[in-house]
Amino acid sequence: MARARNSRGTVLILALWALGMLSIFIIGIGAQLRQKIELVSRLESREELCWLARSGVEKGKFVFSQAHNLSGDEQPLPASWQRLRWLNNPRAFRQVRMGKGFFEVKYDCFDERRDGARTLYGFIDEERKINVNRADAVILARLIESVLRVDHEKAQSLARSVIDWRVYGDSEIEGFLSDEYYDNLEFPYPEKKADFENIAELHLLEGWTPEVCQRLEPYLTVYGNGQVNVNTASASVLFAVGFPGDFVDMVLSVRRGPDGMDWTGDDVLFETLPEMVTALMSFATLTQDDVQLVNDLSARGRLGTQSYYYRIDSYARMVPSGEKKKVSCVFFAPSRKTLYWRES
């Protein structure tokens, strides 16, 4: 009788042990399945986030194409269309909801003569900036002085770094021994001696610290023929191309209209440079020197009133997880050809 009870006890212990091991095994499998489910869910969420960010770019291109279809013309649209359709259009580009999240096409418009930056919803006009492949040292130094508020010597040094990086051979700036700087770095690299392909190359230049790059990049581009669009250029850019400060203030005051803000319904936009001169004359007194300056800058290829290159920065966010993604695209307006694409 005692032996039977001991046998049953042994069987019970073995059964409990087997049940425990099975429970541990099931818990382990459950944990692995849960991890895999979470991983799959996270991958699906990231994929959705990716397509959400890309949707912002596609929405931007659609708005642009729609404007061209309405105009019935494949050439760059009049300046007024640029303002109304894509440079600042919160209704079209602010918090556009799709699926489990939303996207925004936006950018910070820096105004160095006011405090901080203003967020606008739309495209970035790349030709409101200074082209680092076309600008000479004088233009670059004037821009650097205006934005960084540094002395002329410091501005010239930073400008020379740009010129020396892109210029090859006998055209290099005499007496500027930048090769020695790059050769003595911990991880040396040669100067490029060719045009900038991406504005991020500025981080490689002597003197161009992360802070300097962060402050100057919004004013610089690698796209376009070097002409600056007077309808969209900032005060510092207009100053850099050669306008004196009081003339810059006049242009911005007339361009912005009564509310004093760019890209709103009361703006005065110039279809041609002669039209700009005429508009300025109706608001202020222009001297013959002022008119001659506009003509000279136009003849030297520094000024224009149209833009061909635009950047779209699309920011996507999932709700409620808060996951974020950014997609950037630069395209050539007449052909809608994509020239640059980056996902981050």
Quick structural summary:
This protein has 344 residues and is α+β, with helices and mostly antiparallel strands. The chain is 48% helix and 15% strand. It folds into two domains: 1-132 and 222-344, no CATH class; 134-216, Ribonucleotide Reductase Protein R1, domain 1.
Task: Explain how this protein is built.
The chain is 48% helix and 15% strand. The relative contact order is 0.14. It has helices at 2-71, 79-87, 90-93, 137-148, 152-166, 178-183, 210-216, 235-241, 245-256, 273-283, 288-299, and strands spanning 96-98, 101-105, 107-110, 117-120, 124-125, 130-131, 220-221, 228-229, 303-304, 309-318, 324-332, 337-343. Strand 3 and strand 4 form a beta hairpin. Strands 1, 2, 5, 10, 11 and 12 form a six-stranded antiparallel β-sheet that branches. The chain is built from eleven helices and twelve strands. It has two domains: 1-132 and 222-344, no CATH class; 134-216, EpsJ-like (Ribonucleotide Reductase Protein R1, domain 1). It starts with a helix and ends with a strand. With 344 residues, it is an alpha+beta fold. Helix 4 (137-148) packs across helix 5 (152-166) and helix 4 runs antiparallel to helix 8 (235-241).
The averaged pLDDT comes out at 84
SSE pattern: HHHEEEEEEHHHHEEHHHHEEEE
What's the N-to-C terminus distance? Answer: 76 Å
- Any low-confidence stretches, pLDDT <50, length ≥5? 170-177
Strand content: 15-25%
Shape: elongated
Main sheet summary:
6 strands, antiparallel
